[in-house]
Inverse folding.
């Protein structure tokens, strides 16, 4: 009908199978429901990711607390050694700390594989240039790696101190050598993974330089990546680990001191 209520055109209606109408309506309803389910699933996944992130943070805080506790106990042990007031409880607790720290550092070496794999996947992914997303992902990976790097570094220093203390407390040389060999192996594995991460960052930086023309925007992003890479190297350099650690203790020197008819033995520590 037109605006004057006159017939303007006539529609040709065809008979439609009711089953076809039902199928079309069902397909439409299914699509709508599926989209709603996808939205709900996405919201649920976001909540799960938030919870997992909180749990990871809690676990990392627990690791930090454990490392600080081990350092504090080492301070106490050295005080006891200076005052010659060491008893079996001190030795037993030190051995417990050593075992716990060894277990923890092995777990951390597995955790550090996570950011290594993420960096590899990030570099391997087809580089559609979305600078904000890609730079953020890279920074997140770097932050995760450095968190584990700091913890491994702290625990390795604690383990070396514990081995020193155990030797001062008179543990057999075979035990000290075994513990030293174990800690050096951990240090070497850690250093290999750290170098692998640095190489991955270097490769990531080169990928940007090769694939993109050096327009002003691209230059800015490449400089940002280079700056992040340099900061990671500097921070790692400040956490140098002795890969050939030895718990050496300077032997005491004994002197015979004569005072008239009296002869004394003096130990120089």
């Amino acid at each position: 009908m037109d605006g004057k209520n006159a017939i303007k055109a006539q529609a040709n209606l065809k008979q439609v199978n009711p089953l076809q109408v039902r199928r079309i309506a069902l397909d439409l309803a299914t699509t709508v429901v599926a989209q709603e389910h996808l939205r709900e699933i996405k919201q649920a996944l976001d909540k799960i990711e938030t919870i997992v992130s909180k749990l990871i943070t809690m676990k990392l805080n627990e690791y930090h607390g454990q490392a600080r506790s081990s350092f504090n106990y080492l301070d106490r042990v050295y005080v006891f050694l200076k005052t010659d007031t060491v008893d079996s409880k001190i030795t037993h607790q030190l051995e417990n700390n050593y075992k716990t720290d060894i277990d923890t550092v092995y777990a951390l070496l597995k955790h550090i594989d996570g950011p290594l794999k993420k960096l590899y996947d990030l570099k391997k992914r087809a580089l559609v240039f979305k600078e904000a997303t890609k730079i953020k992902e890279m920074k997140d990976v770097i932050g995760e790696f450095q968190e584990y790097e700091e913890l491994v570094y702290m625990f390795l220093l604690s383990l070396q101190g514990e081995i020193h203390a155990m030797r001062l407390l008179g543990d057999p040389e075979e035990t000290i050598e075994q513990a030293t060999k174990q800690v050096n192996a951990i240090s070497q594995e850690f250093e290999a993974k750290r170098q692998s991460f640095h190489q991955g960052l270097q490769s990531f930086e080169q990928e940007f330089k090769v694939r993109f023309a050096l327009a002003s925007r691209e230059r800015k992003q490449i400089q940002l990546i280079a700056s992040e890479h340099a900061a990671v190297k500097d921070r790692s350099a400040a956490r140098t680990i002795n890969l050939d650690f030895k718990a050496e203790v300077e032997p005491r020197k004994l002197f015979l001191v004569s005072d008239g008819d009296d002869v004394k033995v003096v130990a120089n520590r």
User: Anything to note?
Assistant: The beta strands are 253-259, 262-268. The radius of gyration is 33 Å. The helical segments are 18-82, 88-111, 113-124, 131-168, 173-211, 216-237. The chain has a mean pLDDT of 77.
